[in-house]
Design goal:
With 146 residues, this protein is α+β, with helices and mostly antiparallel strands. The chain contains three helices and nine strands. The radius of gyration is 20 Å and the shape is elongated.
Amino acid sequence: MKIILKENLKNLGAQGDVLIVKDGYANNYLFPRGLAVLATSSNIKMMEENNRQGALKREKMKADALALSDKLKELKLTIGTKAGSNGKIFGSITPLQVSQSLKNLGYEIDRRKIEVDDIKLLGTYEAIVNLHRDVVVPIVVEVVAE
């Protein structure tokens, strides 16, 4: 089934992409959640018109993301957490904690745009921040004991 994505979906595509997916996936997951529409000729024309009108807005968003990425590249986050004597922390560091640390420094970044591997030990790690479709920034995260 041919569909048009209404939102960016990880592992599938970006907003406005025309894709072919299985019927069940489209009917049972994408359509009920409002993530995609059927790729009819009228929907394709409407999407093309929306793309033309939104081009300037997307360029501004990308420029803002690039400006923010320059600031974030040099940033080193320090997150304090409770840890045992062997260096193993209680729980793990999540994207929410990274987002809150960035917020404390004055950067409003949604936790869903942050990817963090399982951090369960004290040390230095890397978090990936997806600011835009084309702008991805690695951030150094240092986990220390409180």
